[in-house]
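Fig. S4 source data, part A: sequence.
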Amino acid sequence: MECEMCGKKSEKLTKVRVDGAILSVCDSCSKFGVPVDKLRSSGYSNPVKLPPEAVKLPQREYRPPMPRKSKPVKKKDNIENLLVVPEYAKLIHDARSKMEMTQDDLAAKILERKNVLANIERGSLTPDIRIARKLEKVLGVTLIETE
């Protein structure tokens, strides 16, 4: 027979509980768990047995699932026709400074990483429309224009 923990072949295996699982293990691995016979004798793992008449559950009436309310359809802008303004970096930096916010504060408000915001402010990363909209909302500036 093989130990279920280390795989060593052994004549005698002991059942132990290791992290909630019951395993058949060799003598050297049995120290990692609690023997199952000890658990049973202490009453630890035996559930309370109730007579069948005490376990009657109330019968529930069948109710069909309620129909879900549909969400109102929002008219979405055609994203293909939207562009971020060329001077986005200066607009974002000036508006953030005017509001006396750090990059960390602004990044937390728009749920983006600080590194992303720093790259956008530096001008090395053009924000996508989703991020630009978040920045517009928080900073009160216009970053998106139509073609």
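Fig. S4 source data, part B ends here. The chain has a mean pLDDT of 82.
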